[in-house]
Specification:
heterodimer, A: mainly alpha, 2 domains, globular, B: Rossmann fold, 6-stranded mixed beta sheet, 4-stranded antiparallel beta sheet, 36% helix, disordered N terminus
């Protein structure tokens, strides 16, 4: 079943882009990693080699956390991801194969794909650049330790999401208990060096190796043991909330989006695992950065990064949908995109709430409006870029190397500009709403592009 | 071109082709369907029935040819066509996280139907699933989902309804009700474009029909003409397809 799933995954993507184009995707990631690694000499004065490796390991940890959240999987995830496609993942309906068996195969298949599409190319890019940037390391050990970092992030996310699937209140309680001391106390960044995979890379020892593997195995074992694949709890009934929402919002698609978010599996969990959890790690890492960099304003840079991470919420909004259910109704693609923009704006209120907490925590009340503008501008700019390039299918089209490259280049223009402005003169950020004009024209161009003919199906 | 009546035409297809890569799914079809007909498009699996319906309703673009539905050029204004007609798609797919009642309100809102509650209630009563109106669509049985798709297609009382296998998953009592509804619907001057594999069903309701195979139209004509031949539709169909 495992190899059949591998073939199936390949065909899902290759039928969209062609075998060659999909095969080029890891090469693109390799090239990007190589290019970024070449920039290391520019920052080597401020960031020592050990800190550089620490950042590399945390990058993979955060990546693992984002990919994680498998405890929230269930059938809905598969439905959202694959629509109405008939896949091996559904075999338990007609073949004598348990859901658990299918899930394990699915999990390891995804793991292999992430390794080949992302982890290996990023590592190879760094490896190939190393002679040029005069940085030496044990290549095999690095590959192993960054993979461990990824697995640590993945398994941490996995276990927390499994807890969430049993009791969201209990998970929120745990998170609050953890975050209260972090909020009030000054962060002692030395704990960052305790990351087992990083320790293993810097100081290889059997104890470190065993420790890393034990953590991952323990997290994974508990998560798999408590895994809930079938959430079928009978027929769920609701009063007509749609009409109430629609009367207030005057937009049937936005009303439907909000009901989808509320009623689908995960609900609040999606905010925690795809947004707040990675964001908390970015916050800690940024603290670390600013503790070693000679200049810069933590709060403002965090606001800009918050805006970029916010755009991932557009992916949830589009993942819930089976757009073929609109094909037979008189609906233009542009109407759906606009409604997603509105729904996205509602979700951005979560980001504003986080911004307020960050502002208080970092004692940056003087810069609150600077940060708020930076957040809004970077959030909508990244979103407009995503919509322009991928329409209603960001999770699929991003695997097209041409789109991925365009996205990386275009989406970074405004955030880099904002970060540069925050370093030169933070007050200039008060003028950043002018950039919303660019966002407006980008959105307008997107609507025309995706409306040219029915684009509900790729 | 098949044109079997001088009455008012509501669907016109001229020299339409559709390619999927090298595969010719629809091969130079021309057809005219008149107001008040219950037209059945029959054909084996993969013969091009669903592709034809999807092109006629502006869901996919033809490779070449012209199509006109209720006086609207489908290529120029596919949204207008979908505004005017009702569609039961090949695969039923009401949104998972709306209830049946909410879904019909959602469709009514998109179709700008004012005060739809009365009509929605009528459909719940007619198709006998009012007790499941508050259940999430994903938790409904296939038959109930099909009822929901049926109701959404006729909610705005369209002049033309394109219905793909409307009886699928319905019990015999409901099938009987639906057949009578369709006959009654065309008697009011509306038109139905039906695609089905169930020849007995087609024989009992269709006024006109066409047979499509490998994307090519093999026959188009009146059901009466076939009945005059004193052979069943099944035999007629098999003869055409085998030839």
């Amino acid at each position: 079943m495992f190899w059949e799933m591998i073939k199936e995954e390949w065909r899902i993507h290759s039928t969209l882009f062609g075998n060659l184009i999909f095969a080029l995707f890891p090469l693109l990631i390799l090239a990007l990693s190589f290019g970024l690694s070449l920039l290391y000499p520019l920052i080597s004065n401020a960031i020592s080699a050990n800190n550089f490796w620490l950042i590399v390991h945390y990058f993979f940890l955060i990546f693992g956390v984002i990919v994680g959240g498998f405890g929230l999987l269930g059938k809905e995830f598969m439905n959202r991801r694959f629509g109405q496609e008939s896949l091996i993942a559904y075999s338990s309906r007609s073949l004598p194969v348990s859901e658990w068996n299918i899930f394990l195969n699915f999990f390891f298949k995804d793991l292999l794909y992430y390794f080949i599409l992302w982890i290996l190319p990023i590592f190879l890019g760094l490896f190939l650049a190393s002679p040029i940037i005069s940085i030496s390391f044990n290549a095999l050990l690095l590959l192993f330790s960054v993979f461990l970092s990824f697995m640590l992030g993945l398994s941490a996310s996995f276990i927390l999401s499994s807890i969430y699937s049993y009791s969201s209140k209990f998970l929120i309680f745990i998170l609050i208990i953890i975050s209260i001391p972090l909020f009030f106390a000054k962060l002692n960044l030395n704990f960052l060096y305790l990351l087992p995979s990083y320790s293993l890379f810097i100081n290889f020892s059997c104890t470190n190796l065993l420790f890393s593997i034990l953590i991952i195995s323990w997290f994974s074992f508990i998560s798999l043991f408590f895994l809930r694949i079938d959430y079928n709890s009978g027929s769920r009934m609701f009063n007509n909330w749609f009409n109430n929402f629609n009367k207030f919002l005057k937009n049937s698609f936005v009303s439907k989006d909000l009901l989808d978010l509320h009623r689908s599996e995960g609900g609040l969990g999606k905010i925690i695992f795809s947004f707040i959890f990675p964001l908390a790690l970015v916050w800690v890492l940024l603290f670390f950065f600013f503790s070693i960099l000679p200049t810069g304003n933590f709060f403002l840079v965090f606001s800009i990064l918050l805006g970029i991470i916010c755009s991932s919420m557009y992916n949830w909004l589009t993942e819930f949908e089976v757009f073929s259910s609109y094909e037979f109704l008189p609906v233009k693609t542009s109407k759906i995109i606009i409604s997603k923009f509105i729904s996205y704006s509602f979700l951005n209120l979560v980001a504003v709430f986080i911004l307020i907490i960050a502002c208080i925590q970092s004692n940056s009340l003087n810069y609150f409006f600077h940060g708020l503008f930076a957040l809004i501008v970077s959030s909508y700019y990244t979103l407009a870029t995503t919509v322009f390039l991928t329409g209603l299918y960001p999770n699929i089209l991003i695997y097209n190397p041409k789109i991925m490259l365009s996205y990386l280049v275009i989406s970074m223009i405004v955030p880099v500009l904002l970060i540069s402005v925050s370093l030169i003169n933070p007050d200039l950020l008060l003028l950043s709403p002018l950039i919303m004009l660019i966002n407006y024209f980008l959105l307008k161009a997107s609507l025309a592009k995706w409306d040219s003919w029915n684009k509900f199906q790729l | 071109m098949f044109n079997y009546s001088m009455a008012e035409s509501v669907i016109e297809i001229k020299n339409v082709n559709k390619f999927f890569g090298d595969l010719k799914a629809v091969d130079n079809i021309s057809l005219t369907i008149n107001k008040g007909n219950l037209f059945g498009l029959l054909g084996p699996n993969g013969s091009g029935k669903t592709t034809t319906v999807k092109m006629l309703t502006g869901q996919i673009k033809p490779s070449s040819g012209e199509m006109n539905v209720l006086g609207v050029d489908v290529l120029k204004d596919p949204i207008k066509v979908r505004e005017l007609v009702g569609i039961i798609p090949e695969l039923e797919s009401p949104p998972s996280f709306l209830t049946g009642e909410e879904y019909l309100n959602f469709v009514a809102s998109i179709r700008k139907i004012e005060n739809p509650e009365k009509k929605i209630n009528e459909w719940f009563n007619f198709l006998e699933f009012g007790n499941e109106r508050k259940v999430l669509c994903k938790d409904l049985s296939r038959g109930t989902r099909q009822k929901l798709m049926f109701a959404q297609a006729f909610l705005h009382e369209p002049a033309i309804a394109f219905i793909d296998e409307p009886l699928i998953n319905l019990d015999p009592i409901m099938q009987y009700k639906v057949k009578n509804f369709l006959k009654d619907y065309i008697s009011k001057g509306n038109t139905i474009f039906l695609t089905t594999h169930v020849l007995e069903f087609a024989e009992s309701v269709c006024t006109n029909l066409a047979i499509i195979h490998h994307g090519r139209l093999l026959y188009a004509g009146n059901m009466k003409d076939i009945k005059k031949k004193k052979i069943s539709l099944e035999k007629f169909f098999l003869e055409k397809v085998k030839n």
